[in-house]
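Task: fold both queries, return tokens.
Query 1:
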Amino acid sequence: MLLATQLERVFILKDKGQNIRLTDPEPRWSVEAVMNFYANMYPILTTAKASAPQIKDDAVEYKFESVMGTKG
């Protein structure tokens, strides 16, 4: 018998060379809504983009990557 379970979402923010692991505040929210939620604590998220999800350690991992300082 197969059992389907929903994987936890985890958000990774790279700030000042360190990875910060952010928990999912509300599983029904979109990735952009989560980014806006955390933008109050981490202003770098106002100009960040979310990467494509990757499954890692039984969780769906999204990386918030800043686009500040990049050209092109």
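Query 1 returned. Query 2:
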Amino acid sequence: MIDENVKLLKKVGLKITEPRLKILSLMQRTSVQHFSAEDVYKWLLEEGEEIGLATVYRVLNQFHEADILTRHNFEGNKSIFELAPQEHHDHIICIDCGKVFEFNDDVIEKRQKEISEQHGIKLASHSLYLYGKCADIKNCAEKNK
């Protein structure tokens, strides 16, 4: 995997550095799909890595600019990242615990295209964020603690 990551960083024009390689590897290994810079920093500390929070922010921003990551600014204007998705999807976010659910719906996609065309817009890209509360309030409250 290290060789693949070296190739990826070279391909997008980023210098090969230890922090970049460690952060990229960590993001690829985690089962968490959506994460903040603080999450990455915490995971690095748990693995005994001494990479500062400012470096984590800088690397995540560089990865976003290089299209390795996608940045989302969900409610509260906190940046959340995910590895650049292979397929388009939309998000539902719990306003209590912050959990993010991904979904894709062909009917919604079709309607967005139709509505854009009705307004004379050729849709280039879009993001759909839906906000609500988890149906399982007990588990949601426990995550919030």
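Both queries returned. Flag for query 2: The mean pLDDT is 85.
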